[in-house]
Records
---
Amino acid sequence: MKICIRNGRVIDPASGLDAVQDVYIAAGKVVALGAAPADFHANCEVDATGLVVAPGLVDLSVRLREPGFEYMATLESEMHAAAVGGITSLACPPDTDPPLDEPGLVEMLKFRAKNSPGPRVYPVGALTWKLKGERLTEMAELSEAGCVAFSQADAPMVDTMVLLRAMEYAYTFGFPLWLRPQDYHLAKDGVVHDGIVSARYGLPAIPVPAETVALQTILLLVRETRARVHLCRLSSRAGVEMVRRAKADGLPVTCDVGIHHVHLSELDTADFNAHCHLVPPLRSQRDRDALRAALEDGTIDCICSDHAPVDANAKEKPFQEAEAGATGVELLLPLTLKWAAERGLGLADALDRVTRRPAAILGVDAGRIGVGRPADLCIFDPAASWTVSGKTLASLGKNSPYLGMEMPGRVRYTVIDGHLDYRSNHA
Amino acid sequence: MSANLQLTEDGRLRHLLTLEGLPQRILTQILDTAESFVSVGEREVKKVPLLRGKAVFNLFFENSTRTRTTFEIAAKRLSADVINLNIATSATNKGETLLDTVANLSAMQADMFVVRHASSGAPHLIARHVAPHISVVNAGDGRCAHPTQGLLDMYTIRHYKGGFHNLRVAIVGDVLHSRVARSQIHALTILGCPEVRVVAPRTLLPRDVESMGVHVHHKMATGIKDADVIIMLRLQNERMQGALLPSAGEYFKYWGLTEDKLKLARPDAIVMHPGPMNRGVEIDSGVADGKHSVILPQVTFGIAVRMAVMSMVAGSNT
């Protein structure tokens, strides 16, 4: 397959490239930028006039719901939705049923993903057996099966000794751990931030120390073990400050934030909108503002969708009984553009947070446009807007805090591994 | 929040889910209407025909005797047909969802749902999904709201104190877990009470409770000093020993209302309690039965207030 993408504004945050030029693709790679290579005869031409040609998005947390939660969504549906969102590489957390705690499950998932159209799928293995936080998984075997990192997803790690041992063992092989800092006891049964909304509506609260106490534990153990740790889904200003200091001290840590936390706060939960029941909880406006600033100054490395599609019944419940999470893959690009526009940042700055930076954390050759690199591209119309609805979302999860709202930026084409994987009807 | 959900387009009360955000005129209207119903209970024939032919479903997803009974009496005095469903032990235990249960009961020609649920916001969810002719009255949801209790407390205060504008009200005890306290705080604020205090150890107060417009006191000595109204909250048995409080004995010693402590309040102070009381835990028997106590009149007023609410929401559909 040879593709020529004509006349688009090519933006590659990694190299600083931002120019209108043609992109030539053959055999899964970008073979030339600007002028056509000799003897290049495209099978397919894409007119990208007025569109941005960006590296395909890299999303560090996408639940494909298989195995075990097919009633919520399927691997095919969510991989397609991810492609619709311009995502070309994704990491899936191990909180499936059963969890990704043995090589056979990971191989099966990789096999299923490989045989479906859509993004490249990088499984994150379970750190402990059944995610129970007690016994380490066979990390080396899981790595051979294709796991790129190890995580408890949102399952608690109650025993600090197991956490220490997990870091030591992972360090042995250089495996990264992806940990969401949350103290089990401080968070137990809570569903909202310990703030104004919790005071008013009596919803069980998760105080900020649930994040900072766990974060402190993780950072002290990283100092001790020098294990590589990626901190997932920061939610608080205090947490951001701790990560800033840890990075200044040279600890080998990176971190991300969920896209919804960049825009929403506890006030959005005030009408018992179960779509705003998220993990971690949406915190105060001060916390949200700190997350936005930390994303800009680089303390927070990247943004992920933390995609969690659920079936309609799971949200049609009282707030605290409703399933947590929001669908996200199709909102990652628009909400990232919205954040950047609101902060007065350019497109390259925006795209950097969802391409090169997460790719570096994932440790794969992705998130860049360059000759010889994989042809994974997200081609979008920055001027187009669309309205989020059950109909416009391709994901089977229609659970979004943004239902009925207008989003900036619409993906027109997604190129994965040199193939035109998705083409919007409006293109 | 939810103010729009609770009111009709022309500003009448359609559902009663929470007192937060309701206009003062609605609260005053409820209290005035209740006043006209108090005398009904004193008549030989304790009935008025306002809800004749209407079906009121008591949906109690959480057990309750007192609140359910007073709602039932109130509905019957309004001549409604009352159907009591103790759902805590039926359909939802068989896996039926809340909204399916409500849809099924709606199909039985219900006109009003009186809902108690262990989860905050459950009545809001139901109100968003019922047919336009059905009203929802919240009889207590999670730790969020118990609006009719809050209203009957306001009725009691107005009855004994004449109004709210010069009052110092102290709410003492487990505010953190109390839907009653939240409704009282909203009601007092809306009705113009200048000083609402909450008095409790730090463990029994929400972290940002001051954002609700109350003054925080940890000691009874300052908390009830010169108070005109003292509202004692119930302390649940399971919270008396553990990480929230070390013991019922220590709680009573520091926050229990005794005759001695009551001397700190205004000489004409009234003492209230939403019930059921734990004598010797949050309140001394001498105080509960003493001359400042208005605890039993509260119960009587509760029926009139619930009649007022039910007649108003039913009337909003005509």
Note: The domain at 3-144+299-315 of chain B is CATH 3.40.50.1370 (Rossmann fold).
---
Amino acid sequence: MKDQIEHSYEQDIVGDDIYSIRKVIEPHRDDVDHVMKYVLIGIAAVFLSVMLIMPLAVVILNALRDGWQAYREAVLDEYTVKALQLTLLATVCAVAVNTAFGLFASYLLSKFYFRGRQVLASLIDIPFSISPVIAGLVFILTFGKIGWMGDFLKAHNIKIVFAVPGVILVTIFVTFPFVFRELFPVMNAQGKDEEEAAALMGAGGLMIFRRITFPHIKWALVYGVVLCTARAMGEFGAVSVISGHLRGKTNTLPLHVEILYNEFNTTAAFAVSSILVIMAVIILIIRSFIERKRKI
Amino acid sequence: MEQQIVKVKNKRGVRVIPGFGLSFGVTLSMLSVLVLIPMASVFVSVGKLGLREFVDVVFSRQIISSYIVSFSCAFVAALVNAVFGMILAWVLVRYEFPGKRLMDGIIELPFALPTAVAGISLTYLYSDQGWIGSFFDRVGIKIAYTRIGITIAMVFVGIPFVVRMVQPVLAKLDRQYEEAAMMLGAGRARIFFKVILPELFPALIAGFGLAFARGIGEYGSVVFIAGNIPYKTQIAPLLIMTKLEQYKYEDATAIALVLLLVSFVVMLIINSAQIYMQKFSRT
């Protein structure tokens, strides 16, 4: 056994492997490296379990604290179902609008060169770096009573603030750059040679997109949609500013959680949260699945 | 020869690919209607407020103290995230171990989990009766409803930023420099600080800045754990909310404008730091 090890050392040195030379110069270094590896993995694991896994466990355990019956009641409550419907509606709208925008904008910015390209790219990123509360405020200042469109909307009897359209609008706003941010780098890296060749051979716009651009961005698009969905269904700050918390009308699922929690109805709050946790976990699973697909 | 002609024409701006007009029109109109026009309202609304009133609002005691709470907590949280994010990225890139894929996936949880849910469950966890809170309570440290609690919530939302910034850079790093340093007799710490860290620094700064900016703006996960005691644990976004509930729209806008300016400056610093570091490491 010992001979074998020594033999392999010699071979490795001949093969100029840096790690085996090191083994000879500093024989204990590997042990120390090993200890360090497990210490670092340990720190990472403890940090993640305290910061991420424990909060998840808290939600699930508290949701089921008063038994299965209480859980079912909280989840199937009329207001919860209505809130879930509004959340799904806002999410679907946000994903549809932002997917369309992401496709057009990234096509524009990656396939054409024009003045102001950089400025446009940073303008699109604005909603990403803004506090959600400010995003909500912005829409109140535009469409609210004091907003410059307020009188016009009142005259035509259109309600946006403290109504469903407002909730949908802010959800679109906060997730605005999500699909674009995923698509743009991929399209940019792909370049435009293939599209140019196709165009010179007589392909039309739709044909070029379907046959050439789209196959390259397929997974990036799915990825962007997933991220957009995650953010849209969980948005709290912005929606909370603009919704007015009307139960059964403009309440989304995260807002419903807040109301229940503030009423000291903790079990119900955690039960409703568990719906969102399940959605989040599904999103994470899809995400890691796509991540692997993209690497291949 | 023909190919060259096409290329020259391209440089002059003749576009071969169809769809410029359509995509330009759609992009610009959607951007204007959904983002730019609403954003412009902030400046219109601030314009209604005179300069004197603006200064009075922005520099009132309550608002100054909320800025201090927001900025200091976000800064500490971003520092914590920089350290642990670095460790996480290192572990995920350099080591193989069971459960690695799970660890890689779960890092994204703060992006996927709604902030309100994170808020109530962190509050429960760190309150006097919670699993972690009760442990610290016995030692005499209160976490929920103090600045420590706010910082923890901000750490939670900022975790993915540093990891996802550092991870790809670390994976691409050429290990031959480390090997060279090792052969020249450098110790582990020296290799890390003199060889690896300078390469990772721009990514680390970018991740730090993003986590910091996110912390300043964060609302959902922080309000529950903050307790919102005036002058002590009131964060700036919450103050905007309070002003809105009192129908003081101008005040809310003034606070928002200051926050917008700060996050703009933070982004500017990150970008210039990155450009500077890139130039620096190339020479």
Note: Chain A touches chain B through 98 residues (CB under 8 Å).
---
Amino acid sequence: MRKNLNVIAAYSIMMGLIILVGIFQSWNIALSIFNLCLISAVMTMGANIQWGYAGLINFGIMGFTALGGLAAVLISVDPVQEAWSAGGFNILLSLFLIIAMVLAVRYILKNYKKSKNRTYIVAAIIILGIVIIRFISEPGIEAIEGVNPAKTGFLGGLGLPIIFSWVVGAFFAGGLAFVIGKVALGLRADYLAIATLLISEIVIAIIKHEDWLTRGVKNVIGLKRPAPYEVNLQQTDWFISLVEKFNSSKLNLITDLTERQATLNQLVIEGSSVFVKLCYSGLFLVVVVILLILTQKALYSPWGRMMRAIRDNEEAANAMGKNVVKQHLLIFVLGSAIVGIAGAMLVTQDGLFTPGSYRPLRYTFLIWVMVIIGGSGNNFGAILGGFVVWFLWIEAAPIGLYLVNLTTAGLDDTHFLKVHLIESVPYFRFLMMGVGLLVIMRYRPKGILPEKIEIK
Amino acid sequence: MDFVNAIILLLNYIFVPALAYGSQLALGAIFVTLIYGILRFANFATGDMMSFGTMFVILFTFYFQSVGISFGVLPTALLAIPFGIIFMVGYMLIVDKLVFKYYRINKSPPVQLAMVSIGVMFVTQAVVRIIIGPSDRRFFDGEKFLIKAGEFKEMTGLNEGLAIKSTQVITIIVTLILVSTLFWFLNKTKTGKSMRAYSDNEDLALLSGIDPKKIVMITWVIAGILATIGGALYGLDKSFKPFTYFNNMLPIFAAAIVGGIGNPFGAFLGGYVIAFSEILLTYAYKKFFMYVLPESMEPDGLIQLLSTDYKFAVSFSILVIVLLYRPSGIFKGKVL
């Protein structure tokens, strides 16, 4: 108990802050912060597995998040039959050709010795393949994008419940991580960082511009929900009576019947959106708890000890017969898969998929700030980092406004400096993140909750 | 005649823009490579440092314009650049003293310095946005075109016009002067040589009496000059927007690594490699083939290898290929 005191204290302070937001701003805001904190926590857990356990830098978090989001679209949207009949065959054929091309290249790389001729043949296969695939896919893509472009213009998905996409998102992200890992894991740390950053940009470019698959910048809206809709809730009897029960003391004070009914209606509308958010919180909390149990178990298992050994001294671990390359690949795939789950959760919560909104600052660097501030190598720390940083990211504007008002209290309200500063309040969040990261890295380099290794 | 038209077409749409864009990337890439070679970390604040310098150039340009100072046909910003450089170098030295120095003296691993540079990136981004705001700004004045497309057509009687913007010419000339001075400095002067020695082998350089503090300071000064001029030229040619500058970090990194990181000459050429491949691969060659081929063979499609949406993706793919097959870069930088 004693040694976990700081963990408990940190988490209670965090929950207290969110509850304060609930009391002073509104429960709606508090819950939406809480939900995004949970999603951020899942992302940081993924990054923490890679960085904290194995010392691998992954600056491609944005790409894996977007792939998770793509999974949500491909699983939950109903298939567009018309588009499938218009261009489905061409797309399937090109998919088949891509697989054939990859297999052919693999076959050649495996069975022939390294030589100039081999390189030329591989290059020829790739170039020829790309040309043929473009010829086959182009009419198909045009046909698909021509099908009712204002509403669909893409192939659609499978029409399954969106919850399944959380698993599929993990597989998508894990698959991409496998490919990247095979290619780039041999690089030195900072090159790996740059390479993954750029590869994630390529992934986003593809998602943004392949309209037949993702609708691109036209966005996919109105995804199915795992939670009830507010409008439906507002008309269900049990929900109305539930709201009535909760607020009975407040309602009893009002004697006028019509006025009472009006207040009740207002409360039901507010309550419905809080209730929906609570449903999401429950779902996300289940994911976070399951992942936390799994990662904690892994950390203290022989496998976790091996990972730390590899992180701390690669050569020694190698000499002890551990396959460093294989373990690095494994952990890269696992961590990225967790990030993929978070991506799918994010799209599930928003109910829309907007490829244009994936930016490295928000989805890669901010997540890294969370991991570093929270405490790399410690799962509780990583989750806490997700909470703290997301909370500050959202609440930075009000805090910044307060600070500006405080420091410029002596100035006139129309003074140009004050007006300018108040206008630029939204950017205080960048300042806060940067200064926070720098201070933590300098004075507490292991994070708020540092890694603690218990030797039993 | 058709053949000349085709050449002019390529000059107008590929060669001149790529040369200008490549010069802007090259300056940034040398900045990255110098920091990497001498201070030994990947500076993720590159793009934002460039926007910081450009911001001061813009502020001074606006000030000069309001006072009524102008540079004739040339943009006023050229006059403002030296003042921008002073602020940029000052900022960099302060950041180095407050942030990077601690890790350098403790001999932290490069990864930790890269993480710290992310913190600097966030702070710089905030400062730029608070001072000048996130919106798009144009600060170009003076003569816009050196040769206008219409005039060129009249002059030569060709079908294709060649338009050369004055910013493109300024960019190329300034880059050439700056880069040749830099190479002269690195190769011929004593300070430059000691910088290269420090980059090659730190311990040996220290043994032979090179003052590390001086080397670090000079590196930041050169970096500040490169960042400000590179950023200002990009802003003059296109426009200034903090978010675009942040994004430019990616092709700049690609250029530095493709050229061989730690090798300034490689970075210089890497900028052009990236710029030319981006533009060559995404240009629609339909018109070119219409000129070159006989009428019966005229192409139907656009003859575009990749859609322009994939412009950035091209440079990143080149980077990945280079990292795979020649990890030290085309021009042999540091071995990974």
Note: Residues 2-325 of chain B form a domain with the ABC transporter involved in vitamin B12 uptake, BtuC fold (CATH 1.10.3470).
